[in-house]
Amino acid sequence: MRGIDIAKKLNISTSALRHYESWGLVPKVEREKNGYRIYTVEHEAYFQCIRALLPGFGMELIKELMPLIIRGNKTEALWLVNQAQVKLHTEKETVQKTAEVLELNELMEIPRFSDRNYFTIGDVAREANVSTSAIRHWEKEGLITPDRHKDSGFRIYNASDIRRVLIIRTVQKAAYSLNIVREVLADLEKNNIAQAKEITLKSLAYNDYALEEQVRGIAALQNLLDVVSKLH
């Protein structure tokens, strides 16, 4: 099977096929005496799977996944995919929280926040699904200004800080620069939530798109596993 034929089917260049080969994402490709690559049905299934997985899972996961399948570690590969799906679901929930808080003037209106005066950085990180280092970075950038405990000096956050962090991470996660984040926060200070709401709704829509693409990718992955099972 010629590489150019596979490339045409997938609407990509033959150089892309060679990149995937050089990255170890497909089994070893034999060559004819004249040096031309000999692609098999199995190779085609790998290439199809890579392209199908890319929109919903990204190349970083694919680079972990394909070598596992090549080595016969099917179960480990499937759990890796499952982990990515859980991550997407968690992201969806976090963005939905942002959409929820944008409709409120104060987070204290949400029952789980109503009985607490302050929160630790760990509390905020868990609520917003971000790392504590990200929160510290945003503090250095002047995007949030938590108070300090009088005795211990530790950062203490209130419900408004959590609302702010949720908005920051959602806007930045949508691939916007910190300058855009600052614009959104400035609008919020004026009780203008239009831009933040638009970005949040786009993020929710993207999560729905990613879910559909993941399902398509998983179908291609199952096809690859079936092909590999028949040949080995």
Characterization of this structure:
- The protein has 232 residues and is mostly helical.
- 68% of the residues lie in helices and 3% in strands.
- The chain contains 9 helices and 4 strands, in the order ααββααααββααα.
- The strands form 2 sheets. Strands 1-2 form a two-stranded antiparallel sheet.
- The mean pLDDT is 90.
- Keywords: DNA-binding, Repressor, Transcription, Transcription regulation.
- Pfam families: MerR (PF00376), MerR_1 (PF13411).
- Residues 1-68, 118-187 form the HTH merR-type domain.
List the main descriptive attributes of the protein structure presented here.
single chain; 232 residues; two-stranded antiparallel sheet; 9 helices; 4 strands; 68% helix
Set down the secondary structure blueprint.
Layout: H1 3-10, H2 14-22, E1 30-31, E2 37-38, H3 41-70, H4 74-102, H5 121-128, H6 132-140, E3 147-148, E4 155-156, H7 159-173, H8 178-189, H9 194-231
Antiparallel strand pairs: 1-2, 3-4
Helix pairs in contact: 3-4, 3-9, 4-7, 4-9, 7-8, 7-9
Distance between the termini: 19 Å
Specify the overall morphology.
Answer: elongated
Supply Rg: 23 Å
Report the structural category. Answer: mainly alpha
Uncertain segments = none
Number of strands: 4
Instruction: Work out the oligomeric state of the chains in this entry.
Output: single chain
- Estimate the mean pLDDT confidence: 90
**Relative strand content:** under 5%
Total of DSSP H or I helical runs spanning 4+ residues: 9
Strand/helix succession: HHEEHHHHEEHHH
Query: Roughly what percent helix?
Result: 55-70%
Largest pleated sheet: 2 strands, antiparallel
The side-by-side strand order for the widest beta sheet comes to: 1-2
Protein name: MerR family transcriptional regulator
Domain HTH merR-type: 1-68, 118-187
Pfam families: MerR, MerR_1
InterPro entries: DNA-bd_dom_put_sf, MerR-type_HTH_dom, MerR_fam
